[in-house]
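User: Hi! I have a protein structure encoded as tokens and I'd like to know what sequence might fold into it. I'm fairly new to this, so please keep things simple.
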């Protein structure tokens, strides 16, 4: 596998990697130069997946093709956006009574999105480099939930003070 060869060369700091057939006979050599393009392709693919883009998407595609590709990912994410809307709806009466809360809703949503992107970026990168075994998934999920809870409390306190100073 091209990606595995790139990881082995990188991990061990090798300049070349021999390739053998099923009988163990030398059939070729993969050099570090050979895998530079592979590493770039894999990094691009991982980055695109992180953003919900198809790795085949190019800037010279038609607008309709690009729109169709991106729309699929956005539709997959629609349920979570609807869930967030249902949470806000649950507090509609409170928001009506304290209109200043509406000012902070896009701030909280934006910061939540930023925190999610941080987690996704770290996890996708770690998976791409083979640093996260699949068996550790639940442990990593728990870790990231704890990080989110700590950061959420800290962010909530800071935003609470800002809101109190700004809106009273």
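Assistant: Happy to help. Inverse folding works backwards from shape to sequence: for each of the 168 positions I chose a residue that suits the local structure. Here it is:
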């Amino acid at each position: 596998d091209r990606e595995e060869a790139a990881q082995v060369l990188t991990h061990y700091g090798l300049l070349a990697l021999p390739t053998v057939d099923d009988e163990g006979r030398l059939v070729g050599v993969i050099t570090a130069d050979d895998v530079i393009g592979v590493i770039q392709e894999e990094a691009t693919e991982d980055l695109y997946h992180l953003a919900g883009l198809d790795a085949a998407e190019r800037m010279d595609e038609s607008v309709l093709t690009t729109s169709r590709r991106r729309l699929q990912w956005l539709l997959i994410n629609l349920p979570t956006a609807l869930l967030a809307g249902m949470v806000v709806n649950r507090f509609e009466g409170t928001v009506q009574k304290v209109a200043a809360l509406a000012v902070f809703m896009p701030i909280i949503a934006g910061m939540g999105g930023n925190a999610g992107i941080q987690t996704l970026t770290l996890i996708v990168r770690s998976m791409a480099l083979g640093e996260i075994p699949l068996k550790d998934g639940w442990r990593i999920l728990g870790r990231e939930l704890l990080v989110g809870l700590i950061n959420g409390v800290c962010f909530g306190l800071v935003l609470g003070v800002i809101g109190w100073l700004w809106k009273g």
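A useful reference point when you look it over: The two ends are 60 Å apart (CA to CA). Feel free to ask if any position seems puzzling.
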